[in-house]
Amino acid sequence: MDKERRKKLVIPVVLLLGIFIGGVIVLRTQGIGAQVLTEGKKVLFPIASEPDADPDGDGLKNWQEETYKTDPRNPDTDGDGYLDGEEVASGYDPLIPAPNDALEGTDTNTPRPLPKNLTTYLAQILTQKISSGEIAPAQGSSLEDISNDPNLPYNQDLMDEALAQIGLRAKEYFALPEVKDTEIKISLVPATKESVVLYVFQLSQAMLFEESGGLNASEGNIIKETVETKNTEKITLLINDYKKTVVALKEVVAPSEFAEMHKNYIAIFSLLTTVLDSVKNASEDPAKAAAAIETYPQALDMVRLWDEQLLTKIASY
């Protein structure tokens, strides 16, 4: 990767301090991999009597909950992170935890649809806890009273558990995608110094970033500006460049000795496209955007590592 591109990718870590739901609930993000919900712990909605009601907001009406034998007071009966309605709609059993819960006739070769809006899902979890009384109202009216509220530590633990549950869902969005040999072009001729030089040149040409190259701003600053101003013009240019880079890389003929590294680059640029696209849509799903921002520096670390490996391999020819 050329020096300008390398310089562009090395940025300070951008932190999102909080996410807002309805403008009134502020939650401290714990990050992906936080403590998982205590096994067996369940918060329940009261059951509505109308057959067409959906009191737990999982996408199944009461009569459908009865048909599928799911819990009408729990949006995720099997506790695997997918709402009951999502599982039914995509051909999976809402009573059996993922991943081995495909119903007969479901094509498991097709990637399973990702969970929907993470912020909506987080709001549903918190609504459960508030409506059931598990999250107690704050005591007192002043900040000092609230800071001394005996319920505060327990409420915070419950919020952290909800965020951990969202974190597990977010992992699916921001996993490094698999790139197969059939998606790239691989030379069957043994690599020579000349073919490696040509490959490196074509690699650099695929990473020109023409649309965003003139912005004179690091990716980190673009992400920060997008979150703070909600202006998506710059990040859209960056996303377009990442998408073009992925397409261009798939057209570059990689020496067989560089095939795995080549697939790594395609995978990481695809992941970064997903990350930036999630930041762009932060107003629609701030919880997903928060997870994307946390994933971003981890993705850059992978780019740096593969850059070093690529340079070492090039030097051997």
Summarize the structure in words.
There is one protein chain. The chain has 317 residues and is mainly alpha-helical. It has two domains: 3-13 and 176-315; 33-173, no CATH class. It contains eleven helices and four strands, in the order H-E-E-H-H-H-H-H-E-H-H-H-E-H-H. The protein has helices at residues 3-9, 62-68, 84-90, 118-131, 143-147, 152-173, 193-206, 219-229, 233-251, 259-280, 286-315; strands at 19-21, 25-27, 185-187, 253-255. Strands 1-2 form a two-stranded antiparallel ribbon. A two-stranded parallel ribbon has the order 3-4. Helix 8 (219-229) packs across helix 9 (233-251), helix 9 runs antiparallel to helix 10 and helix 10 packs antiparallel against helix 11. The longest helix has 30 residues, at 286-315. The two termini are 17 Å apart. Mean pLDDT is 75; it is low at 1-46. Keywords: Calcium, Membrane, Secreted, Signal, Transmembrane, Transmembrane helix. Pfam families: TSP3_bac. It is found in: Secreted. Residues 48-78 are annotated as: Disordered. Its main location: secreted.
What is the element layout, followed by pairings?
Layout (H helix, E strand, L loop, with lengths): L2 H7 L9 E3 L3 E3 L34 H7 L15 H7 L27 H14 L11 H5 L4 H22 L11 E3 L5 H14 L12 H11 L3 H19 L1 E3 L3 H22 L5 H30 L2
Parallel strand pairs: 3-4
Antiparallel strand pairs: 1-2
